[in-house]
Amino acid sequence: MKYNQIFLLLLTSSLLVACGDSNSPAPEPTQPPQSQYDYLDVKMKPTAPKSGTVTVMLGEFDNKITQWILDNPTADLNKDGGVGLLDAHLAGVYNDDKESIEVDLSDMADFLATNPDGLGAGTARPDIFKPGHFSAFDLLRYLSGGRDDLELSGITNYDTTGLGTYTFNVSFDADQSGIFDPGTEETNNGNWHFRFNAHGGDFNRARGNMQGFSPSGEANYIRMDEYWLQDGSLITFQPFSDEMTARRQWIQRQEVLNFEASGNQPMVPSITALTFDANWNPSVQAQANDVKITAHNHRDDIFQPGVVTVMDAMISAQEQLNGVSFSYWDTLSTGAKVGHWAVSSIGGKRNSGLYGWFSEFHNPANKPGDPDFSKYPNCNWGIDGSQDGEPRVSQEVCQRDWAGAFGGELVHMLPDVYPMNYGYNNFSYVYGSMYDIFGPTKRDINNSLVWEYKEGEQLDKVTFQTFELPSSPVGNASLLDEAHFGWQIADCTLCHNELKEPLGHGGHSWPINSRDGFSQSQPYYCASCHGANGAPKAHGEDDRCFFCHAGEKLPKKHGDASTKVLYKGADKMMGNKMYGFNPKYRGVPADEFGNHKPIEQRWNSRNNDWDISRVFPDPYACMTCHQQPE
Fold first, then answer.
1. Which of 116, 349, 365, 574 is the most interior residue, by most CB within 10 Å?
2. What H or E segment, with its residue span, contains residue 71?
3. Residues 276 and 212 both lie in one domain
4. Alpha-carbon span 519 to 525, nearest angstrom
């Protein structure tokens, strides 16, 4: 099995399924007492905002770069070992800009509260969403109600389609002529669906990256009326081919039939957690079979009680999987507004730095590693959407709708906001590595990782210690407690320094961690004798603390670790070099429409993926003082 392309997923444990609400009432929720929530690394209750904005594009995006790459699969014009957007630019091919609309969610809520189309005051799916929260279908309702160039018609209710979702036709005056041109795909077209991109912070500019991201978002098989509309999202409404609609609806229909066959009980026949050796041979870390999914209502700020999500599927399978856990990702160092639970461990194997679990949802044929979408898709199914149908999907249609590393069953979504009320076929979690994106030319895995890097790059290789904290006084050193005048102040050097105590530590020099190559005082080195000074407990993570502890969550009074650094100059930005260990999916920075745009400067916290604080080096200082719970 080859999983190379799925390792390009961001480590957001992005969860990929096609799912929906039941034609029958949702299962009765089961809510364990709080004491049983041991699978949550952080004991908190999210509250999703009801306000914000989303960006909307109407109509299909003309992706000239992707089409050129599909038409010229061997045209490696810059001789870098792969075919990508830089080659397209050398051939004179660029994408044009496309107009977008900014929609205020509060304005949308006010408009839909009037029940303008008879589908309900507020959301059209009050069985799924709490008041004040909406779906992508609700967004389409809002746009069609307020624009002369967009019209919904032929709407069939979700509980009568056999798909668990609304069907409808769209008319769109694309040329702004004032009329819907009869006999074209602009008028009464039942093939309209949506693409999406979640808020990505700095990564928003990489929507055209040839690792598989489209400027218009990820095509998908998700029910439009179940996709939660989140602040900062990009939504593109567009017509697809008859074949794409048939494929999506065939998948949704199979889910409904399976759900009904199991007595209206959402099920997953198999959930598998996979790890890989040096040669990418998979082994099973854990597996669960015949999983009955029950609701745990961890996002009852968004969903109605009883709505089942992928997170619920993992929790329901945790005993068979030998344990699962979830971290809460808020706003990240990239500026991405996430606000979701993500899988942090399965079967005792935990995320660590750029290693971590992400989902690899099988394609509808249930063939791992062979998804519907890829850079050069095959579309090995019938035009009716079924696996064995005839005739088969043409290559022209296949490339138009299925080209891209992500889409269909393989999209960037998080488990707590993905309804799974019909269950799913089978899916896997894969323990992957993002360290490879930094470009090793040799990868030797025995007991440890040894990399040789290309282009003669000089790396500053160091090994640091994480110290044990004393449980009793060490020699004459006192263990700090609440009586300490600086209790819970992280930076000892604010008071204990050469200006206030010139002779240093007890009349001697200040202790320095010279073994690790440092030449300055470090509070976490002090903690190795004096204790953690009341530092809060950790929450399971053991690396890249700066990834979440940034922005408003940047540590206070942690020396230079509480500051930011401005890196300037395109030549200094590693991200400007071709990256990715799979030549087929290498990428370079791009703008929002997919054209090359080098990174010129970047603000980062002092601890980052390229540098560390000398006073509070991440994660060594963090893991010394912030001990993991017992």
1. 349
2. helix 64-71
3. yes
4. 12
